[in-house]
Write a structure and sequence with these properties.
single chain; 486 residues; mainly alpha; Four Helix Bundle (Hemerythrin (Met), subunit A); Helix Hairpins; 18 helices; elongated
């Protein structure tokens, strides 16, 4: 569908570029002229003045007013058309069409594509050459180079906008063009404000280095890399679900670590510990450090020393760190690799027949046409080769409502007891389930907000009363389920 739309828009653009005057300066007939000529042959269809004589006075006056307005409009249109048919205007329009056509060919050429990538590479080198305590001459050279490169990128943007148009099907169709527009406008604004000494430099021009990602289009014939990209894109949904699971895993162990080690890593006053569980953010960062395996054993040693050293109470604490490291590092993080490898195999099996068809087509395509197609790919959105994979929702079985078991609960409530039936309806209602989830999240927030250093602070006192509410709610849930299921 997008290819048909692109071809249709190219056809319209070429039709707009066609010269509407011949070599002698005479205007060629268009569709509007042919329709007017056709209407002239059937002029007896039009309303004459005699016809309006039979109308009432009010309708006749309104008709005359409309005719006068139409005459004024026709006069203005005729004057504008006469001015536009001037030889100077015709020359300017013809020159504009020729220039736009040549610019379109230039910006879609392979030479222009690699020239822009070379300028981006120079901009990257210029940005990477900055360092601390650099000489003044290097700073001046970098400022001049940044301004020159910004001017060149502005010229490139204006050329593309002039050649392709500013519509959604022209310059702003491709993602990289929209990104270039944002970076160039941001760079111009930043340079202007810095020169006027209104604000310090922000470094927006560094974002232009992202344009170097375009060079990956050259590797579209590299089958291994294409399969790798396809596998990564296919596994995004699964990876997002896994990231959510990993985040919940980190939150649970961070809250547990705050309860176990909050304010207890200060046993050595001569050293300042960076990996602690004193706040929720520090606990999250420490758990993530343990998951990556970066110096996690030192954090475990600190936890053991917080409970008196390598004796009976302290040695039991190492179970927390061992479970966190094994479940996080060896299970969850390695699932990423398993998903990528699985999707890589699917991508290879899906791309194999397509690669054979493309090889047959490439044997039949001339070299010149192949270069033109390669240059035109810059203005198009990258095609994502995705294979049909079943969504996770189809693989996960829907949760079924467990019926009331036979027998009596607490030796009192039978299976048909109205109290037990009411409890069963209540605990399986979606409102009650969502309410319990809300209380679980509020309880987690309460645990994360506790101050482990000042135990009797006002915040901890308030959170202590909140714990009574949460405990009562969870106890009520337990009683309902025990009444229902025994």
């Amino acid at each position: 569908m997008e290819e048909d739309l692109s071809g249709y828009m190219d056809w319209i653009t070429q039709a707009e570029d066609m010269d509407e005057f011949d070599e002698d300066g005479n205007r060629l007939a268009n569709l509007g002229d042919l329709s007017d000529k056709k209407k002239g042959k059937f002029g007896w269809f039009s309303h004459s003045n005699d016809t309006h004589a039979s109308l009432p006075a009010s309708e006749t006056a309104s008709t005359n007013t409309e005719n006068i307005d139409e005459e004024h409009t026709d006069c203005c249109a005729a004057c504008c058309a006469r001015m536009m048919n001037n030889s100077c205007c015709r020359t300017l329009r013809r020159w504009n069409r020729v220039c736009r056509r040549n610019c379109r060919v230039a910006v879609k050429s392979v030479t222009f594509y690699w020239l822009v990538l070379f300028l981006v590479f120079l901009n990257t080198i210029c940005s990477a050459s900055e360092h601390y305590d650099q000489p003044d001459w290097l700073t001046e050279v970098q400022d001049i180079a940044n301004k020159v490169l910004l001017s060149l990128f502005t010229v490139e943007m204006l050329l593309k906008m002039y050649a392709l148009g500013t519509s959604q099907t022209g310059y702003f169709k491709a993602f990289f063009n929209r990104f270039d527009f944002f970076v160039v406008c941001g760079g111009i604004t930043e340079t202007t404000l810095v020169e006027l000494e209104i604000m310090p430099p922000l470094g927006i021009s560094v974002l232009r280095c992202v344009r170097l990602l375009r060079i990956f289009k050259v590797t579209r014939h590299w089958t291994a890399l294409s399969n790798l990209v396809a596998s990564l894109l296919n596994s995004m949904k699964s990876i997002m679900s896994l990231l959510l699971l990993l985040f919940l895993f980190l939150i649970i162990f961070a809250l547990l670590g705050m309860q176990l080690f909050g304010g207890k890593f200060n046993f050595d006053e001569t050293q300042t510990k960076r990996s602690t569980f004193d706040t929720f953010s520090q606990a999250l960062l420490t758990c993530f450090q343990i998951l990556t395996g970066e110096d996690w054993n030192l954090v475990m040693y600190d936890g053991i020393m917080a409970y008196g050293g390598p004796v009976f109470p302290g040695m039991i604490i190492c179970i927390y760190f061992v479970i966190l490291f094994i479940c996080g590092n060896y299970i969850l993080l390695n699932v990423f690799l398993a998903i990528a490898v699985d999707n890589l195999g699917d991508a290879e099996s899906l791309n194999a027949p397509r690669d054979k068809k493309e090889e047959r087509k490439e044997d039949l395509v001339p070299v010149e046409e192949e270069e033109e197609n390669a240059a035109a790919e810059e203005e198009e959105e990258p095609e994502v080769p995705a294979g049909p994979r079943p969504p996770i929702s189809e693989l996960v079985k829907k949760e079924k409502i467990t019926p009331i078991p036979d027998g009596s609960a607490f030796f009192i409530f039978s299976k048909t007891n109205p109290i037990r039936v009411g409890c069963h309806k209540l605990i399986n209602h979606h409102i009650f389930t969502n309410l319990i989830l809300v209380f679980i999240m509020l309880s987690s927030v309460s645990l994360a907000a506790e101050d482990p250093i000042r135990n009797f602070s006002a915040r901890n006192i308030v959170l202590g009363y909140a714990d009574y509410v949460f405990t009562s709610m969870f106890t009520f849930e337990i009683m309902l389920k025990m009444t229902t299921y025994g």
